[in-house]
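The instructor's notes for this session suggest beginning with a concrete chain rather than abstract definitions. Hand out the sequence below and ask the class to guess, before any prediction is shown, which regions might be ordered.
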Amino acid sequence: MSNCYRYFLSVDPDKVRQIYRLRSNSKVFLDRDPELDEIKLDLTCLDPCGRNIDVSGNELEVTNLAGPYILRFTNPFKLDKTIVEQTLLVDPVLGEEEGQICLDDIAVQSHLMKCCGPLSRWEDVYKVSQQSGYNVIHLTPIQQLGISNSSYSIHSHLSLSPTLQLSKGSYKDNLEEVSAALSGIRARLGLYFLTDVVWNHVSICNEDVVKHEDAFYNLANTPNLIPAYLVDREIGIFEYNLIRAETSLTSEEDVDKIMILLQHHFESSSVKEKIEGYLKDTSYSDLIRGVLGAVRGAVMYRFVHEHGLQYTFPEKNLIDRYFYVPNHNPPQEMILDLTDAKNAAKIVTCNGWTMGESIEDMSTTQAYLKREVVIWGDTIKLRYGADRSDSPWLWNYMTQYTCDMARIFHGFRIDNCHNTPIHVGEYLLQRARHVRPNLYVVAELFTGSEDIDKTYINKMGINSCIRELQNAGTPQKLGELAYYYGESKPCGSLVTSVAATGESVAMETLSPSRPHAMLSDQTHDNPCPFDKHPVANILALSTVMVSAKCSIGSNRGYDELVPHHINVVSEERLYQTVGYLPENSFVEAKNTLIKHHHRLEKEGYTETFVDQVCEEVIVVTRHNPKTGAKVLTAVAADWNLDTPDKFKCLPYYPSIRLPGKEVEVLLEIEASLNGEPISYERNQHIINGITNLEIKVRENVQQSNLVSHCLSDDELFVQLKLKKGQIAMFRVIPTDDALSSISFLQQHLLNSEGETNVPLENAMKELDLYSLNRLLYRCHEEEEVDGCGGVYEVPSYGKLVYAGIQGFLTVLDEIRQSQDMGHPICSNLCSGWWALEYTIHRLKYMKHTAALVGWMEMIHSKVRHIPNYMRVKAFDVILRLVYDAALRRLSVLLPGFGLASKFKKMLMLTSVQLVGKVIKTGIPLEPQKKYSDSYTDNVSMAAGLPHFSHGFMRCWGRDTFISLPGLLLSTGRLKDAKDLILGFARTLRHGLIPNLLSENGASPRYNCRDAVWWWCRAVYLYYTYDDTILSANVCRKYDYSDSNIPEDSPQTSTILDILQEILQKHINGIDFVEWNAGKQLDEHLKWEGFNIKAWVDPETGFVHGGSRYNCGTWMDKVGSSDYAGNRGIPSSPRDGAAIEIVSLSYQLVVWMHQLQKLGVNPYYGIEIDDGDYLLTYAEWARKIRDSFEEKFWYEAGGFYRDTVSSQIPENDCKLRPNQTIAMVVAPELLKADHVTKALDIISRELEGPLGMATLAPSDPEYRPFYDNANGSDDYRTANGFNYHQGPEWVWCMGYYLRAVHAAKPIPDSEVYFNVKLAPHRKMISLSPYRGLTELTNQNGEICVFSCPTQAWSSGCMLEFLDDLQRTTPRVFE
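After discussion, reveal the predicted structure:
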């Protein structure tokens, strides 16, 4: 396979409906979006012929079969088993190995078949096309036409046109004759052929209307059309009478008079009541009002409008009929008795089209009744039904027709595509691709919606949509169309295919693309360009077209300057052959233009930019990303039809500033009118054009009159001396230095096998985890406090989220998806190397980064001369190389990182992100170890970024030790875990560890009851990795009496001693007022809130504490609004015995007992009453175990109480997620059946997509939307009072999932939990901070006040992933 792609399966509706294009003979690796990662999918694939192909290995091999490859799988997030369908659209390649034409190299010229003459004449006709530069001929249908002689009104799909003058053989013989003729022309002229396929209608003269009633829409099989028929009949009667009255119809006043008469006709109609009987959602008067408006618009267009059809009445009908009755009499005698099925079946629907959604479902459409259909009165609409059984004859008939055409032609243009039933188009194209695997499919889609266009494109496998430049009404609009349809990738676009280490082939990530265009200067449906454009624009339209990177198309007659519309119905003359062409026709110029279009494609000018340099001048730039060369095409356009001088000069000459050393003028074309007015004499037999437009073509111009330039400091100033009717195409050659930089980028940075990566890998070996923290992350506040100035700020965008390279890559990865090179960071990067210099400058002040700095400075010196428009790409590639090397370094430093799943890797990266060394934070492990002003050796964990990043807000005792098992133990960072355990142990006071630390670990605040128990759990878990932790010595800050220890008289304790002290202090009872209590410590708290209490209930063994005036657990929000009256009041005090504290303390007591039995713990229990009694660990544990179910189980609610013995009794029975912590840390306390019941209720009431609601929705205090800036007088929400009263906290989800995993037998649990984790995978992948947020609002709604990356959110999720890896979950006893 010559091409390798990576495609991400998704359930995102926006992604699913996008267009993903790829080349044939490719291999596609089927990856997953973060949501689907690790979820088993029942993935299947249908190829463009509708056959199943194997994708069980998550690889799709694409051969030379072009069209839609449809991937299907069951949506794992939907209970109704919804099927997700995604399409990969493979581009066709026309021709064999030599002379193959890819999609963007196609140049099509349309021909009306009837104007080509006999088959024997075709080669002479197409020689003109070949000489004009086209390589594909589009032919209207070659079938026998109907009575109107319209090129699209087919009498019979299975007979060919008599105008071909074929041998008198059978239909099959005639097909072979045409095929042989086209093959000969193909061999001699190098042309390919495509034809229209007409699937929606047949001519009204088709005899099968009578034979196969089920193949057409009639009033018998589609009775809802009856009122539309009755309205149509009345209009017919009215017109019949109008003709008899010899009514004039030449002006708008005439039309208004006729509308008044028609209104009176409807008001007095004999079928009024019959029509009313069918109406449901509208009144008769409203219906007629709409009908009159539609009829008026049609009549004006047919007879009055300047740019309309200019018909004459009564030579042409007032309007076309919507219904056809074979052999009908005058309208007043048309069938009215529709109760007879035979009568009803005779009345069939004419075909037409609507702007907007398809009218394929005729059983429900109101378009015919409301006269919204642009009708073709000479055709009858075909009825396929839901499947082949509804109309077997029609399906077979059209299948044969389609396959016959596929044998002859290389491609199809689908006529009236958006009114074609999609399932019909899918089936017929599948059959056609059986015959011709590389079928090229083109369509005009007038749905009015790009999303609907994409549905047709993906379902049918449409390769190109015809888009019309002639519709541009201004030069600005012309530029917009060229940009929108002719831009494949913008100049300097980011790389999407870099070979990974060890891979020899670059793998391109498939990104969504716009519908591929066949951009046309004129289509055969367009009016004559002279009707809408000055003569000068004939050249302008074609030049803009050929400058675009897409397929291009034109209509026969445009290049021969035919000054009138070649009508598909009425035109009967023949096209010119070579001998008839005048010398000054546009053919030579078009040939030269198309030749350059092919050259740009062949030579790799794959990137595009369109610039409106002044009102009249458009410049289209094609850029070669491998060589840095640019080809610019400047076009002077004019839309003023009234200008006397059609080729006047511009008011001034625009100039362009470009990096480069040289300008090569490749092409100049000038159009000028030889005399006034346009000279044209219509030939009665041959379609001819004007003769007095002179076209001058100059190639490889040495002395240009249109383009001048001067060079200054490696910059070119190019002046365009154009006048209207002139174009210039020129190449800009980069400087030698630029070429050297581009070559280095291509050969070394984009080549994984290059030697450049070796020194980078060596440099990375010197980095430790703290260096990587600084290299990759660090928010603004962390940088500021370390004296590094802050993060990089982009003008018109703002500050990046990180100073490290992840801050840049977050934005660049977003740009890579959209290729939005107009993003402010792109402007900043193009303007200078400041971002790279900033990155290198940061690294110079870090430890262990000297080698990395040297590598980056070397790279900078190599690429510094790269053209400015390529700097974004170069910067992105450099940072991506460093980032990937950093990940490889982490595979060494973090055990298991290299083999971890994508999600676990991203969670492990948050350990690097949140754990580091920041000046004046953390706790010195030894009293003599002071902080310097420039560096600290003490590790600390940020509770979250950026909110909790520095100073006293960085190190939260509770957050640190809830997070530590996941962020440090699971990731193998035992040294850091131990340092944090020992550091906080130094600060033990009152039997508690601090909740907050001020600078240098001084003045700790002991205002929480739960942090110490989370610390104990961290010690318990660390012990399973390293049992020496218990004997580790801690240099204490405070003695047993809670007094300061002088630094010159150090005292030490072991961790085991400290564990014992914690238990002893709680048994003794803790009661103190916080140091420095008052407004200076906490401006929100009432005085009573500074009084900290904790004790153990002697009956139950439960740890109690707190009061209604403070918050001793993680739900610690205190009101701060005087206006709302909640200042100083805890929103969720949770005083009494909190369920998680009881379970955590029980775990410690049981562990201490186990250690005593093993001989590791010299203590036997806790002294009571100054040693008069020893409460053994076993006895204490038994008290808790015996009391737990009795006190905490809430039978009426079916869940566990949140607290026991709160001062506010109703708070005990609030449904909160804290009970799941008890289920995880002390499962033996809970009954299995109670756990099952509780989890069922928690699942229904509290479980959100990302987090757990902190209060049940049924609770009167439930407020799920957190707004910390709420300044209202609402007591429950003011200033974010509801922080823990309903918002969904992510860290709680980790414990909930762990509880479910341990308690409930779940069939196919791997799939179940991977589905649960899908929102988390998505969030961490898309978050600019690359972390899991602190909380969300109701149902996972993003909360802007939430900390974007929170330590315990990631840490608890890592612990859950560890649980999943265990072969046997814990069981409740």
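Then share the key points. Residues 499-504, 930-935 have pLDDT under 50 and may be disordered. Residues 871-893 form the longest helix (23 residues).
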